[in-house]
Amino acid sequence: MPELPEVETVRRGLTRLVVGRKVLGTEVRWEKTISGMAPEEFDAELVGRTIEKVDRRGKYLLFRFSGGLTMVSHLRMEGAYYTVPAGTEPGKHDLVTFHLDEGIDLFYRDTRKFGRMNLVPDADALQVAGLAKIGPEPTEKDLSLAYMVSEFGKSRMHVKPFLLDQSHIAGLGNIYVDETLWQSQIHPLTAANKLTEDELARLRENIIHEITRATEHHGTTVHSFTTAFGEAGEFQNELQVYGRVGEPCLRCGHPLEKMKVAQRGTTYCPVCQVVKD
């Protein structure tokens, strides 16, 4: 699933490619992609509107259309946007086409068909399921240490699933949680409320730094992620623990191990990351 750096990379690409373009029409080839309305209604609502801006909140894209309408788009596992010349024949997995002016079509491709789009008034965008209770963005400005001390202190949940829960911190997924826990020398099965303020300060710093670095490298391509320009991300070359099971820990040299935590494959160092009692 694309995480915050990948979704932000897509947002930046779409800003360059489609902002300012007018919608001439839409075609929906997989009706479940559009939540809460029929394809005909979706088309009628969008025709004639201009894409004024593309925002992001956590792992969600928010297409801001003229006339006070927002399309909330969640890419889920393998959703992707890319532009093609108008009239290009859609492929098998191109589920939605946005016909734009100036000879451009915007395709939404999703091989797993899990992605969803919700078209709502601007004022309701942040109330769409998944966004209503989303946590702060992992930035210096939004994610304070005081918040983390309070939030983590309330929960006995293992820290890995705690971080994967978007209601605590927005945008983190399996890759960046494994990376930042290793960097912070925190075992994934440590209870959230067992972490000291110093450990949380280190974790906060690593989360902010890692997300920033990953975004600068246009995200991580492990399976199928591509930017809006059809290019792979570059951060997979910078990963320190994710995908390196059996290889030596870059800190202590012990072979990295893998286990399941909250049904997610989790790579960690059994020497550097020790469970706290």
UniProtKB/TrEMBL annotation:
Query: Endoplasmic reticulum: is it a keyword of this entry?
Result: no
This entry's comment on the bound cofactor is: Binds 1 zinc ion per subunit.
Q: Which UniProt keywords apply?
A: DNA damage, DNA repair, DNA-binding, Glycosidase, Hydrolase, Lyase, Metal-binding, Multifunctional enzyme, Zinc, Zinc-finger
Q: What is its EC number?
A: 3.2.2.23, 4.2.99.18
Name any cofactors this protein relies on: Zn(2+)
Q: Does the keyword Repeat apply?
A: no
Q: Which residues form the FPG-type domain?
A: 240-274
The entry's DNA-binding residues are 93, 112
A GO biological process this protein is involved in?
base-excision repair
Would you say which domain of life the source belongs to? Answer: Bacteria
Provide the reaction this enzyme catalyses.
Answer: Hydrolysis of DNA containing ring-opened 7-methylguanine residues, releasing 2,6-diamino-4-hydroxy-5-(N-methyl)formamidopyrimidine; 2'-deoxyribonucleotide-(2'-deoxyribose 5'-phosphate)-2'-deoxyribonucleotide-DNA = a 3'-end 2'-deoxyribonucleotide-(2,3-dehydro-2,3-deoxyribose 5'-phosphate)-DNA + a 5'-end 5'-phospho-2'-deoxyribonucleoside-DNA + H(+)
Question: Where's the active site on this chain?
Answer: 2 (schiff-base intermediate with dna), 3 (proton donor), 59 (proton donor), 264 (proton donor)
InterPro entries in the cross-refs: DNA_glyclase_Znf_dom_DNA_BS, FPG_cat, FPG_Glyclase, FPG_N, H2TH_FPG, Ribosomal_uS13-like_H2TH, Znf_DNA_glyclase/AP_lyase, Znf_FPG/IleRS
> One MF term from GO for this chain?
double-stranded DNA binding
The Formamidopyrimidine-DNA glycosylase catalytic domain extends over 2-115
**Pfam families linked to this entry:** Fapy_DNA_glyco, H2TH, zf-FPG_IleRS
By its UniProt entry, which HAMAP family does this protein fall under?
A: Fapy_DNA_glycosyl
What's this chain's function? Answer: Involved in base excision repair of DNA damaged by oxidation or by mutagenic agents. Acts as DNA glycosylase that recognizes and removes damaged bases. Has a preference for oxidized purines, such as 7,8-dihydro-8-oxoguanine (8-oxoG). Has AP (apurinic/apyrimidinic) lyase activity and introduces nicks in the DNA strand. Cleaves the DNA backbone by beta-delta elimination to generate a single-strand break at the site of the removed base with both 3'- and 5'-phosphates.
Q: How does it assemble?
A: Monomer.
Family statement drawn from the similarity comment of this UniProt entry: Belongs to the FPG family.
The protein's name in its UniProt record: Formamidopyrimidine-DNA glycosylase
